[in-house]
Amino acid sequence: xxxxKPQLGVMGQLSSDIFDDLDFVVKNGFDWFEIxxxxxxxxxxxxxxxxxxxxxxxxxxxxxxxTAFYLPTSTMIPEIxxxxxxxSQKSIILAKKLGADRLTIHPGYRExxxxxxxxxxxxxxxxxxxIVDIGNKYxxxxxxxxxxxxxxxxxxxxxxxxxxxKSVRGIKxxxxxxxxHTAGLTPDKYLMKVxxxxxxxxxxxxxxxxxxxxxxxxxxxxxxKFLYTCKxxxxxxxxxxxxxPYENILDSxxxxxxxxxxxx
Length: 264
Known about the structure:
The radius of gyration is 18 Å and the shape is globular. The protein is built from nine helices and eight strands. Helix 8 packs across helix 9 (246-262). Strands 1-2-3-4-5-6-7-8 form an eight-stranded parallel β-barrel, surrounded by four helices. It is α/β, with parallel strands linked by helices.
């Protein structure tokens, strides 16, 4: 099996300043940092772009930008759709300025109950096509994240997720392992369904019932089997730990690397 090392990353923390995050990431030898635009302290980064870029360049750190998880990407309401597209363009431009080549976006949720879910998916696909076109203009990849299993969320079922990926030319995937584990498939099987699109991964554990963002080993995901599958398809990262607080990240990093070595 190829001895190539995995590329590990960290998602920004809810309660810390972005430079505290960067200090933690650099000191602990991570390869990637994902900037979460969900958090209030990151709503406006324009005045800090140059400093962030310098830190990332000086430390060979790769950046990812993650749009707000509550963005209603699938909206059918014209006024809200315009705001979603405008916000996405602003986020894409930010990624470009930071030197990030990818932007993660959530699919959103259904605005109407019952059979209207088909309308939600149709709207999501149309909106994503516009966003991907903007991303292409700025040479920023748009990575759609799968969500966890909840009645009002889109793209948790792998069939629906894959259909959207196939319907939007040029789109990529951010595969969230914890979310996939709630969808009725083991993460390794979920990965095999969407492997041709995967550009990023989010790493955390749970019991399979709902999204918990636990550290590796605190849930029941078979990470050794999953990481073997990653090696088999030639995926070596980024693997971004979406865990809070910092201590959980360091513990999971150690366990991840031990399991990576065992996964043969």
